[in-house]
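Question: Hello, beginner here. Any chance you could explain the protein record under this note? Any guidance would be welcome.
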Amino acid sequence: MANAAFRPLEALRALKKLIEDPTKTEEAFRVVRSLDGPFFGRTFRRFKRDATGARLMASKSSLLAALRDRAGLEKCPEGSLGRAYLEFCDREGITPGGLVEASDAVPMADGITEDERWFIDRMRDSHDLWHVVTGYRTDLGGELSVLAFSLGQTWGPGLTLLVAGGVFETYRSGEAGQYARRLVRDAYRTSRRAAWFPLAPFEEWLARPIDEVRNELGIFAVPVYTPVYVADVQGTGTTAMGAGMSMGQRINAATKVA
């Protein structure tokens, strides 16, 4: 990526804000873009060298458009990836493209090419599909586990810092923190054995059985755990983690209803 600077102080400031309020998703993007730019080329080159990656990039296929097509997803067979994704969004209270605003709030490096921008957007838009395929929810433990899975698939110092910061916070949370760390450890180990998710043509697989997709990607078991959201404690009626509590406080709150 052209002119991609390495800005560790900016990343640390962003991580502090994210730990204080995990709803500030834009700070997660800021951490990654402050540190991972110089390392982006390795992931991008691996993608475009592969025949599937080259084909997807040449077509400029829009994964986001496919995920926003609710009518199309509803036509997918029961038990398919598309239906599993739709059910995931409804259950978790999220929408396709929910990360777009947070992503757009953080500038990309100067001189980025059209192909690089397309790939970065695709990685962002596939995030919730990674949740669906791996079986992790959007609770604190689930989000941290998907970050750990992503780290195993596409290493970068920004992702490393995000996972390390989240794991550090779990040490304030006793038994619940131990459980969260087990989830994270298992997610990372699974990622190292799995197929490389960035190459998955998810938009072409939406009608396929979710179990078939998991098998093809090397996900042979999904975690069975009870997700707990701060809303369960606060009674806010939303699955989003409320502001004003650190990650450690959120896990402590979760122990009261676990």
Summary: The chain has 17 helices and no strands. The chain has one domain: 8-255. Confidence is low (pLDDT under 50) at residues 232-258. Residues 136 and 200 are 18 Å apart (CA to CA).
